[in-house]
Write a sequence for this structure.
């Protein structure tokens, strides 16, 4: 192809523009026009034509746009297809793209926000399980401490109490570890509850040492543990579902809160009577009898709250689990003690009643452990539910993102389809011209 | 007001018959036609418009084209008038004579030539 004016830079530019403006003409028509124009230029201009001469010839030809318009008007059957103006093309691409971006963005944002929320719920559920364990360990430590104090703190701290303290410390560390990261974005109430709980945990050492150094009565030990630490733990657990929209999760959280209350009521009764039976002489003072009755009444109320919150299966599980010889025996022992103390407060509690501290502690502990089994199941349901919700939310976010990505790719492909088709047409056109060229020669 | 726009429309209308008239004498290739038309002053606004017109005439069956590879010349597409083209040209010549006379008369405020209405009604 050496030595033809078609290689002149002005001609190349002109033909390129012609290709662009004729892209919407029927391919055969555009091809023919190009062929006519190139033949015209080949005939009109020699291979060595100068820039001025070329420019003048091209100028006489008219602009490619005018030629295309003329050809478009000439094309009868297919009708003039108006070239898709830049702005129209932009509108065609931009409008769906903006709509897709807005809706897709909203969906992704909503899904992402859900995933974050459920991520928080999942975190709180794990933390809650740790708090439940901590409350249970604190109850054991409190009840054993009450007995130790009631015995006049005779001898070194018993192994059982030392073990209970070790268990509490481990549970406290677990709570502190899980509490990391709870802050901004979480329910303010939940964050506040957690802060109170973490602060109260720092008091634990002081409570233990004060208990040893000062003449605290058992009732005071019980009250300090209950009000200062166990209370905040139960409060946190009860409100842990505040941030979730999932009614099932909220329902289980409420059920667990009633169980924890019941469990603590039982445990306080264990502490009061264990301290009374551990005292020398074993005696349930009128003030302690009053508090024992009050806690027993509180347990009735909390049990009613549990029945109101729990479904039939959970109620069934409770009555099946919290039962047996030890449970019945503990109940009988408590009634006996109350009756004896009410009849003759000054008489030793163990006389003629067959009551003793170890048996009471053991039987009541069985009752409490049974209740904890039910509570632990509820806590497990909460973490399982939160895990599912988080996993679903993550999957949904992933799915939405993939769909949005596909839509975006589709938009880009659609936008590119026209230029691509043009390119294919051009390649086809060139090969036709080349083919013709071979025939001619 | 009609100015250049009006003239462009007029040119568009008469260019086809002019091309046919040139081809009536002998077949020509593109550039040849363009040069002959350009020689008639004011008939072409731009050289390129001839080509879409040629395609249109060919589609209408008034001209045909064929590649000719003459000795010592480059291959060129030559356009020739068809029988239909000749008939169309003859008809246009008659119409144009009447039309230009009518338009000229009206434009110059001369009396409308007798028989114009008849002829108009006939068409």
């Amino acid at each position: 192809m050496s030595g033809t004016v078609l290689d002149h830079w002005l001609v190349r530019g002109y033909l390129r523009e012609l290709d662009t403006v004729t892209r919407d003409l029927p391919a055969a028509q555009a091809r023919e026009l190009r062929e006519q124009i190139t033949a015209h230029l080949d005939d009109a201009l020699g291979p060595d034509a100068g820039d001025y001469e070329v420019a003048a010839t091209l100028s006489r030809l008219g602009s490619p746009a005018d030629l295309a318009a003329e050809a478009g008007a000439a094309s009868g059957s297919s009708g003039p297809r108006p070239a898709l103006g830049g702005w129209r093309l932009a509108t065609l691409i931009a409008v769906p793209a903006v709509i897709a971006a807005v809706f897709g963005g909203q969906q992704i944002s909503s899904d992402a926000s859900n995933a974050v929320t459920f991520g928080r719920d999942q975190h709180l559920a794990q933390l809650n399980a740790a708090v439940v364990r901590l409350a249970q360990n604190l109850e054991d430590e409190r009840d054993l401490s009450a007995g130790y104090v009631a015995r006049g703190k005779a001898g070194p701290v018993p192994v059982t109490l030392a073990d209970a303290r070790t268990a509490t410390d481990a549970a406290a560390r677990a709570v502190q570890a899980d509490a990391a990261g709870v802050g901004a974005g979480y329910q303010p109430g939940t964050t506040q509850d957690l802060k109170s709980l973490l602060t109260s945990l720092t008091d634990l050492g002081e409570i233990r040492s004060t208990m040893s150094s000062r003449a605290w009565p058992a009732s005071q030990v019980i009250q300090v543990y209950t009000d200062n630490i166990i209370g905040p733990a139960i409060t946190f657990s009860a409100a842990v579902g505040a941030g979730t929209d999932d009614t099932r999760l909220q329902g289980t959280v409420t059920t667990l809160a009633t169980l924890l209350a019941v469990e603590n009521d039982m445990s306080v009764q264990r502490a009061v009577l264990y301290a009374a039976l551990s005292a020398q002489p074993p005696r349930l003072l009128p003030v302690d009898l009053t508090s024992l009755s009050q806690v027993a009444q509180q347990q009735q109320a909390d049990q009613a709250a549990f029945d109101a919150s729990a479904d039939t299966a959970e109620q069934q599980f409770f009555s099946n689990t919290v039962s047996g010889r030890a449970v019945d025996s503990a109940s009988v022992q408590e009634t006996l003690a109350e009756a004896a103390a009410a009849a003759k407060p000054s008489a030793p509690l163990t006389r003629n009643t067959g009551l003793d501290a170890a048996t009471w502690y053991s039987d009541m502990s069985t009752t409490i452990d049974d209740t904890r089994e039910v509570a632990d199941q509820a806590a497990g349901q909460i973490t399982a539910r939160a895990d599912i919700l988080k996993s679903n939310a993550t999957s949904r976010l992933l799915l939405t993102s993939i769909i949005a990505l596909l839509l975006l790719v589709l938009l880009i492909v659609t936008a590119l389809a026209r230029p691509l088709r043009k390119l294919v047409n051009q390649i086809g056109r060139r090969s036709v011209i080349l083919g013709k060229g071979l025939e001619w020669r | 007001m009609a100015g250049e726009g009006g003239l462009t429309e007029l040119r568009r209308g008469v260019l086809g018959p002019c091309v046919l008239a040139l081809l009536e004498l002998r077949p020509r290739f593109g550039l040849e036609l363009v040069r002959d038309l350009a020689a008639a002053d004011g008939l072409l606004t731009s050289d390129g418009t001839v080509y879409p017109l040629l395609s249109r005439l060919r589609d209408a069956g008034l001209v045909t084209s064929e590649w000719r590879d003459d000795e010592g010349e480059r291959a060129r597409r030559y356009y020739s008038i068809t029988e239909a083209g000749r008939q169309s040209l003859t008809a246009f010549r008659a119409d144009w004579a009447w039309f230009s006379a009518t338009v000229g008369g009206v434009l110059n405020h001369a009396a409308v030539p007798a028989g114009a209405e008849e002829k108009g009604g006939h068409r």
Notes: Strands of chain B lie at 28-29, 63-68, 76-81. The interface with chain A takes residues 29-31, 34, 38, 45-49, 51-56, 59, 67, 69, 74-77 of chain B (CB under 8 Å).
